[in-house]
Structures
1.
Amino acid sequence: MEKINTYIDQNKNRFLEELFALLRIPSISADSKYKKDVLSAAEYLKHHFQEIGMENAEVCETPGNPVVYADKIIDKNLPTVLVYGHYDVQPATPLDQWESDPFDPVIRKTDIHPQGAIFARGACDDKGQMFMHVKALETMLHTQSLPCNVKVIVEGEEEVGSVNLSWFVQRHLEKLQNDVILISDTSMIAKDIPSITTGLRGLSYMEIEVTGPNHDLHSGVYGGAVANPINVLAKLIASLQDKDNRITIPGFYDRVKEFSTAERQKMAAVPFDEQAYKKSLGIAEVQGEKGYTTRERASIRPTLDVNGIWGGYIEEGAKTVLPSKAYAKISMRLVPDQDWKEISELFKKHFEDIAPKSVEVKVTTHHGGEPYVTPIDGVAFQAASKAMEETFGKKPLPQFSGGSIPIVALFERELKSKVVLMGFGLNSDDIHSPNENYGVWNFFKGIETIPAFYKHFATLTKEEQ
Amino acid sequence: MEKINTYIDQNKNRFLEELFALLRIPSISADSKYKKDVLSAAEYLKHHFQEIGMENAEVCETPGNPVVYADKIIDKNLPTVLVYGHYDVQPATPLDQWESDPFDPVIRKTDIHPQGAIFARGACDDKGQMFMHVKALETMLHTQSLPCNVKVIVEGEEEVGSVNLSWFVQRHLEKLQNDVILISDTSMIAKDIPSITTGLRGLSYMEIEVTGPNHDLHSGVYGGAVANPINVLAKLIASLQDKDNRITIPGFYDRVKEFSTAERQKMAAVPFDEQAYKKSLGIAEVQGEKGYTTRERASIRPTLDVNGIWGGYIEEGAKTVLPSKAYAKISMRLVPDQDWKEISELFKKHFEDIAPKSVEVKVTTHHGGEPYVTPIDGVAFQAASKAMEETFGKKPLPQFSGGSIPIVALFERELKSKVVLMGFGLNSDDIHSPNENYGVWNFFKGIETIPAFYKHFATLTKEEQ
């Protein structure tokens, strides 16, 4: 580890500069006008893999954005780690809430990061966390300390539901064979409370169009006599949750796994300061499903959030219009053992059922992903746990995360190997939000911890054989 | 009348060309980036009044958009007609629903207008209808047939609630003294069913901002535990109307005038084809307050319509955001004897009362106007009735309109004279909507009828003395 830490120390500034170059590329996958930037980010990574000594670096075509692949096979008898990450980022809107340009990374000190944090879209999710692996691999290759084989795939559609990753994986099953899949796209409980994510929520993302009259009308001439699609949409959305904030879609909770009192008590033992939580968000009260704590609501319970809504006149001033159409984007976070395709169907059917005859509704599914729980008794989890214990000086806690990484379930199904979610972010990193940032300390802690994972994984695998 | 009709016939094309020049100016009052165009429209009118022989033409300053004034006093012992109109127009959005450029007027034939209709923003509301008065005045001046004095005011803020007209009127009470106020900014029942508007709904236009967390959040990390301002806004809006589509704001109906069965039967006798109404709007069902007909819902009953709503991610694709803010523009149409300021206060108080502690709501009043009922037994109404009977060949029907002209009540209060709402539009003119249009037939029928009004008003006033 001495050699490794020395190499990291000597190259800190260059590592940051290389990450910054990647962060400057606005590779937003949700908006097709950034297609060229998405491709630039893929090319940048491919060249970078070649530079650090990885082999077979390639920008692999898919029906959508390409997947960047690279590997280093040192001995076919040794185990193989498959690293997964993504180079695409969320849209940066609303731009006026950013304190600096989302695509011009800067380091600023914050209360949580007195040594500085990198502010940029993708700083944490996932360019920053993915790039830790690239730099850890460079470090191991340069110090001749890579103890097993490695394959890396970096995709460009994670933020839009990894729509073509299944296509890619199914066509490269042989090439992607591995013994463990390592992903850094999650967060820890705190800088001094390392943790490994052992559960992820699934996702079902829907879009709704409500049509009333066939054209925009004068709200004085027609108001009161013709259904207003915005009023109707508000009523439909409101009816999706009852007064206890439980979701009213028939069958929605049928497969939801209820945790035992013992399990819930164990989760409740993890430190959590609700006053500090409310203060950091500027809210007077939390709000969620009756009978569950804030932590439970954000991890082991399903949700229904409107992610966007629009209709009618939304510019400056006033317009007395009764609009023809209203729209909403609605997503549900799912928990074991809900099935995202089934939930999407239940949502669609229910929404169509409750719509009044005075309007037409169109419900479409954007994308989704299955919820996931990872085992904590295998070699993979043990290797991650030992690695973090070594670099953080304390054993990491297992934790359920509220977010979704749709491909985790896919990997297990198609590649028959276990996934380790060893993330170094913090919930306060504001991923998907304005002023996304990633601690410089966290970035280098990740680069230091990843080689320790490889070492322990190689050793534990050998012991097991 | 012979001379008048000959003059109109000989100048038809020029009248249209002059209107088109005015329609080409995008004088949108709701959006400050059109301020220059608003001023251009005012200047165009001032010069036009000078050209046709009106006197004292002036662009009068106000704290907002100016009022154009002109007059022609032929004899101080004769009665004076005050004409009111507006040169500002509604925004043209959504632009993609227009079949031709909203600010490049064209004449196209339609089922309702086989002789052609003028398609442009403001074609009917109110540039087209206001310009009929300008051309009728030109005709009377040129044919030496103006039988009384005339004053004209054309304002530039009607579409944003005439916010400064009260300021202007109060400062020019002497100058604006008159015996009747004539306005063409309403519609008739049909081309073959002339009508005069005797009732107008009032308006209260509110804007709402709901704030949840102090910045946009990741809906996976926080979803379920933190109130989503869009979900909350939907619930609040939904709760404003009950299952019978009655408005739930306490006190809202307290001053609403209930019409007698006899009055309702009389209104119901006016021809109305609900099947054709639904077909023209492309809706399967009408929807409105239980216990009232479609015509009643759109005229003698108050309403609550969301005119605009927005929040979160509203671009292409998907973003899993739990937004910080959500917004809505909500307007209520009011009926006698509701008071718009009282209703705005009741709305604000109720909305703040029902908001949960997990969010903050900010409710602001955009503007409003009082509902209005005009008498049908005075000289003013009789003169309009006789004028229409003369040019349409049948007696016009009195009718309640669903729209609002906020200044009507103000005029009566400040200037102590009666208002006549003699409009020549049709409900199918799509004012405030894409493809606004105004029948060429209606435009010239108005120019022909207005001089008849002056003639009958002068005669009836003399008889009364």
2.
Amino acid sequence: MAKYKVIFLPDKVEVEVEGGSLLEAAGKAGVYIDSECGGQGLCGKCRLQILNGNAKADKHAIGFFSGEEIRDGYVLACQTAVTDNLKVGIPAQSRLEMEEIVTEGTPVEYSQPGKVSLHKVAQDPASLSEPLVNKVYLELPKPTMEDNISDIDRVTRELNRQLNFSSYDISLACLQNLADKLRQSDWKVTATVARQDGKGRLLQLEEGNTTDGNYGLAIDVGTTTMVVQLVHLKTGEVIGVEGNHNPQARYGEDVISRMIFACTRNRLNPLHKAVVTNINDLVEALTREKGIDTNNISCVVAAGNTTMSHFLMGLIPCSIRLEPYIPTATIYPQILAKDIGININPDGILEVLPSVASYVGGDIVAGLLACGLGNNPEVSCLIDVGTNGEIVIGNDEWIVCCSASAGPAFEGAGTKWGMRASKGAIEKVVIENSRVTIETIGKAKPRGICGSGLIDSIYELARNKIIGQDGKFDLSTDNERIIVKEDGPQYILAFLEETETGEAVTITEIDISNLIKAKGAIFAALKSLTDYVGLSFGQLDKIYLSGGFGSSLSIPKAIAIGLLPDIDTERIQYIGNSAIMGARIALLSRSAFESAVSLSKTMTNIELSNYLPFMNEFIASLFLPHTDDRLFPSIHY
Amino acid sequence: MAKYKVIFLPDKVEVEVEGGSLLEAAGKAGVYIDSECGGQGLCGKCRLQILNGNAKADKHAIGFFSGEEIRDGYVLACQTAVTDNLKVGIPAQSRLEMEEIVTEGTPVEYSQPGKVSLHKVAQDPASLSEPLVNKVYLELPKPTMEDNISDIDRVTRELNRQLNFSSYDISLACLQNLADKLRQSDWKVTATVARQDGKGRLLQLEEGNTTDGNYGLAIDVGTTTMVVQLVHLKTGEVIGVEGNHNPQARYGEDVISRMIFACTRNRLNPLHKAVVTNINDLVEALTREKGIDTNNISCVVAAGNTTMSHFLMGLIPCSIRLEPYIPTATIYPQILAKDIGININPDGILEVLPSVASYVGGDIVAGLLACGLGNNPEVSCLIDVGTNGEIVIGNDEWIVCCSASAGPAFEGAGTKWGMRASKGAIEKVVIENSRVTIETIGKAKPRGICGSGLIDSIYELARNKIIGQDGKFDLSTDNERIIVKEDGPQYILAFLEETETGEAVTITEIDISNLIKAKGAIFAALKSLTDYVGLSFGQLDKIYLSGGFGSSLSIPKAIAIGLLPDIDTERIQYIGNSAIMGARIALLSRSAFESAVSLSKTMTNIELSNYLPFMNEFIASLFLPHTDDRLFPSIHY
């Protein structure tokens, strides 16, 4: 077959391909291109400009471009076959620049006399009980004719004196060189011990005292971004953090697109490999930077939503997508990390935090560990806003949860100029009279709007009565920033001469409608759940909010648009990346991990898709802040 | 490097090598040559005749050959480097022809009211309880919104209705395709379930009802021979049997030589691979012959002595050899058979029967299952005669055991014309006046003498007063069959014109002395053990004898030379290959396997090497039948 060279600008990344689509060529080159729909030609996000060579936008793509753009060589990468040597430019809005990824949770402040809070582990290494994988130094008596038990019995006899397991399993690899290890070390060894099914599992034996060299990984396997923390298991210290985009994005922006890719074409493996390879890349970067041998990493705890956990473990996720929404498993077996290709110590283990149901995953269970919900007599609430909004309410006696299909609007997707909370995203908006003040991430020229910017925009537009409480523009007033184009009325946040892209950054009436639906779904889910347990919002002692809004999220404005309930803002806390924090807590505390498993079994999942009260609440919520203004007594537009 | 072609006659097996020894070339060619000492040039067994090409017997080998033999091109294979193309003849006594391998145990007849005897399982499939690995057919209700538990929870919910496990583990491989398996099969599947640590372990899920296709392997991993039985796990039927020599013989005839090979040269791997490859060869032959898919083999139970079990599992056996005789393990973890390279279903498991100590292995524990010792209120005794003599005495309340270094004399090694019980071996000897009547295995020309023939010979020589009760020849009489050569006085059992080798087959005074030491060690061990528990021989209800004597073993003659105690011969039974039978019982009955594990923990091993009473008994036993003739009241020479 003929081979073609494709060069991607501005980074001059070259790749040689034998046909295939331009999007596939980008994937092969390691160039990440936005492709929300997974290459179906539907989202119009994978815009590229052909600078050199013969490649025409095909008819499927025509609708996405103006005549001028077509003349300038704009194409959709997924709909363009490579049949020539090409030089290709990547427009700014198609480029996924390094986000400001949230790599840590915010410590939750509460104290509870007489009881060690699990989440304290993450903040206070002194409260460390026992990490998920322990290293124990043993000085064994040498065998004699009077004491001639087998080598492994000699090791477990000593372990019994130091640990609390009733019995021990041993890996074959460890058993195979046990005799030499013991004798070469003069019977002074360090045992690496995990817990499996209530028994100790001897993973590894090292010569001498190596208890200082025991590291673990906490991993947030997010749909959009992935974060890895390298943690010292003896001190609890976070040694380093790495994060990047989930490279599965090339197969679709959200879990549904990715499931469609994996299931309709029977191609689970690329998605599985993408996440594992990315973990290995992040781990390699971390260990190289910190000068740590990957063999000293004995344990991984991963938190992800149910679909991501399935992709990670290589489980078939296909029935998650369709009613009745069945996952392969919600509690995942402990496996060797190497069994799915993660490059740590070959005897090191992987624990994936348990899910509750298809749309309440291990990331939410991790969130509970991070905010102490389930370990506290106070009734608190965790709201995680991503593609879905997951909501948990409960205390140490009961927990209910649900998931609402809110759409990814607050993560910046599904709106015209929406983007993730990365460089150039408008994160703050204030409108005073006709004067618009915006702040962008990294003080860069505006490229789009992230979640906090969208919340600000809607609030400011409504407060200035530029839109009504129904989210519609008041076109009767004369406002130079309001324009009407083919896609309807929109408000200019940044004029074309101010932006990176050379196009004005706007928020459209359709965007606002989508955002109102999204906030309405989350609020309606929260209302349904509180009603289900017979509580008012005022009875929630705490609301913890996590998600990819961006760090500038304004709680008062989120209340004002009706995303959050109208309670004392002091009782609402944005806790950032609660999944990574929960994963680390589980890594550092065996009892926390076990608590996560039992929490996941305790949680009652309310399936909203068939729940009539939710439908009614949703309709009532499609207003700013709500059709029932008694629910928002402090809000006055 | 130069390459040389070596052709072995009579089978015209060719091999190409780049130097190395002739013994190594034979190994590479798959030609099995006797090499008791493991290639150290000490035993003189690996005699080959150079027929063509340039290869001289080197100085180390000179002592083993007459001048004529050297002229005829005889060399020791291990001491001869290949530096030319060679045609090589294998003398008959160096060739290991197919033995009459004992591939089954003899059913033990006893009944015990109100209690199912474990050993019955081997004879009566109707008594089958539950095999070590079960296949269970499940018809699952399809998921609905009301019954939307995860796939794995749906499977285990149904398993709970059919099996008695408290909970279930699942292999990653099984979990990874669970979702598709369930849906493709329309929720009708067969689960393969093993037991691990008291929990069920789901190994495999197959579409439809495959419960009829569940096979297991019982393997006797003997030092000398290996036997594999293919067993239908649902019916208990033995579908086929294969056996051959343990190819580890090329690294040494006995476990000590093999440990020296493995440990002094740090070459465990060839020994591990040899036994695994041989198992695969036997399994391939069996499955091909019977038309059975290896994927339908879900389970292997192996019985071997402690050293062989270590070689099989790939454990370092080196400290077994030297005081204080420490094995790596006596209870072996359940592993996947594929983890050590055994080709059955990749999710199939391997259980190695537990050992008691370095010199009382899983073969003996298997023997207990076969003869019911430990499961029976009668006090019985198992004597297994191989390189070591292992002796067990006990009932269902207590068990003691020991191992005596008897040497391999009764297996045919260590005596001038000794050989295993294979074609051409003299297995029966009767001497009436000067007339000697011999019978050989396969009615072939005599090639040597096997265990039963050696026992007969000594008994007949003593009965005819050709030797005294001290085992020394009476050289004062005129007997044409008694000759005196460089290696001392010897008795001709077959004249050179009668034999396959063209040399007379004799038994020497040194042989007799070695055999008296061997029988003395076994008897002394038995006496020490009965004294230890305060019993007389008469209080032993049964003595079960196993070992490689050959099927013609005469119990009365074995008593008469003082190998076995002088009790009613009706109470002594030769039970053949009790290891393979015990392995099969464990394969067919989970409770029998668990009983084997608990028996191995119950057994008290008496270490004879430091046990003074044994030394005294041994000295007293070096006489025919014994220095204390009150112990053998019925024997009169």
